[in-house]
Amino acid sequence: MKILITGTAGFIGNALAQRLLERGDEVIGIDNLNDYYDVSLKEARLARIRDHERFTDVREDIADREAMERVFREHRPQRVVNLAAQAGVRYSLENPAAYIDTNLVGFGNILEGCRHNGVEHLVYASSSSVYGANEEMPFSVHHNVDHPLSLYAASKKANELMAHTYSHLYQLPTTGLRFFTVYGPWGRPDMALFMFTRKILAGEPIDVFNYGNHRRDFTYIDDIVEGVIRTLDHPAQANADWSGAQPDSATSAAPYRLYNIGAHRPVELMHYIEVLEENLGKKAEKNLLPLQPGDVPDTYADVEDLKADVGYEPSTPVEEGVARFVRWYRDYYGV
Ligand SMILES: NC(=O)c1ccc[n+]([C@@H]2O[C@H](COP(=O)([O-])OP(=O)(O)OC[C@H]3O[C@@H](n4cnc5c(N)ncnc54)[C@H](O)[C@@H]3O)[C@@H](O)[C@H]2O)c1
Predict the structure, then answer these.
(1) Between the N and C ends of the chain, which has fewer C-beta atoms within 10 Å?
(2) What angle is formed at CA 106 by the lines to CA 78 and CA 46, rounded to 5 degrees?
(3) 125 C-alpha to ligand 1 centroid (Å)
């Protein structure tokens, strides 16, 4: 299959591209390699796939409408996975424009590209942050999510709404995946595991927000990639039982689906740090701080729908995933 992936120099997009190339698909990869975090890490990820004979490297900005029209016209992908985004909850308080440009304008361009070029299925990244002020656990795609706590979260919820209109108006099958804190080798330097590792090894104190009382549904990268591929292979279908009188938020009379994709195993932040300390053979000095603006205290994914529809079965406990991350980190940075 010919699959267009956006964000192929990114953590998840790169891991996904690798797996799709391994199974024989053709991959068109778009990334603008922006400097939100270390560009050399993005380059190093890309170097793992760039020379593959079925990979085409496209250096463009998804917010560039003309460039996106050209890429879709030239490559005519059958399926599309949109992972390019301005990620990060906290940074959205500092630089809101980046979220508007990539997550809203850019996503609009992806929808248009799919609409005009007969794409069979669009899978796109949403986020557990859409649950915002919700407290009913586990978080379910059938709950209302009208109370986002950051512009990042609002941009992801907006993507779900935008996708629904294209599924409804143009019969474009779309599936939104709400990712829950993804971690693992080749991860993101702005995320906790990466920052903690760097600081603990350097003998610097780590900032632990919400006084360490967070619980997160940490999800290992291989489990995420497996779920994305299973979803990609299963285009969204209309729900024949959907009723506008009692509207279900995760399905529609149009070919539209939303799923949570998480480990379904919330872990105390303090336990996550202990596992990291054991693997590094070093104790962390902790700065205990209040909850940061925009952050949510706990996340916990209800993944029953993804299990039922595509057989999703996350299998990596944090003890194993953190150990694999630390092995990769030591090897990559030579520490
Ligand atoms: N990693 C997580 O825990 C997590 C959790 C929830 C949601 N998500 C979502 O999953 C997706 C992938 O996340 P990730 O962790 O791999 O992030 P990432 O930042 O590592 O990857 C995103 C990639 O997209 C590229 N990009 C950004 N803006 C672009 C633009 N305008 N044009 C072209 N390329 C652009 C970046 O250069 C980067 O390589 C994102 O949509 C993110 O919001 C991730």
Answers:
(1) C
(2) 65
(3) 8
Q: Please tell me the distance from the alpha carbon of residue 60 to that of residue 55, in angstroms, as a whole number.
A: 15
Ligand 1 centroid – CA 230 distance (Å): 20
State the burial class of residue 290 (Cβ atoms within 10 Å of its Cβ: 0-12, 13-18, 19+): exposed
- In this structure, the residue with its CA closest to atom 15 of ligand 1 is 11
- Reading the block at residue 288, the tokens are 């205990």
One digit per residue, pLDDT tens: the chain, 335 residues? 999 999 999 999 999 999 999 999 999 999 999 999 999 999 999 999 999 999 999 999 999 999 999 999 999 999 999 999 999 999 999 999 999 999 999 999 999 999 999 999 999 999 999 999 999 999 999 999 999 999 999 999 999 999 999 999 999 999 999 999 999 999 999 999 999 999 999 999 999 999 999 999 999 999 999 999 999 999 999 999 999 999 999 999 999 999 999 999 999 999 999 999 999 999 999 999 999 998 888 999 999 999 999 999 999 999 999 999 999 999 999 99
HSE on the CB side for 306, CA within 13 Å?
30
Report, as residue numbers or ranges, the catalytic residues.
152
Asked if the peptide bond before residue 314 counts as cis, ω within 30 degrees of 0, the response is no
Q: What predicted TM-score, i.e. pTM, was given to this entire model?
A: 0.98
Ligand 1, pocket residues at CB < 6 Å: 6-7, 9-13, 30-34, 42, 61-63, 83-87, 102, 106, 125, 127, 179, 181-182, 188
Q: 273 near 284, Cβ under 8 Å?
A: yes
Q: Comparing C-alpha atoms, which of 229, 236, 20, 261 is closest to residue 121?
A: 236
User: Probe ligand 1: pick from 14, 58, 83, max atoms within 8 Å of CB?
Assistant: 83
Of 167, 179, 161, 153, the residue nearest 83 (C-alpha): 179
